[in-house]
Amino acid sequence: MNRTLQWGVGLxxxxxxxxxxxxxxxxxxxxRETTMTMGRSGGDVTISWIGVRGMYYSVMYxxxxxxxxxWHLLPDAINVPGLVTGEPIVVKDRVDPAQKRYYRLxxxxxxxxx
Length: 114
Hints:
By secondary structure, the chain is of the alpha+beta class. It has one helix at 3-19; strands at 37-41, 44-50, 56-62, 72-73, 80-81, 88-94, 102-108.
């Protein structure tokens, strides 16, 4: 190996050590598949899904379907506990009748820290 290449490899190793590079692996897999259903009557929205004992559920909403949409936690649907497996969980939202709103459900074995 020539000296220039040796110096280049050595500098690359020093740079890697000094910058503190590390690999972070994150896997996002659903805990279980859950179907969320919604019904709307005027400005009243009813959101429901089948709960599992020991799970915590939070509902998020946005008023836009754009890629930059801001998602917010629905105030009355944060850390809703699943108390009985197989029983429906129902939450409500109130929206102006002319407004569109989109929802998503977060589920975890631990409460969400907003």
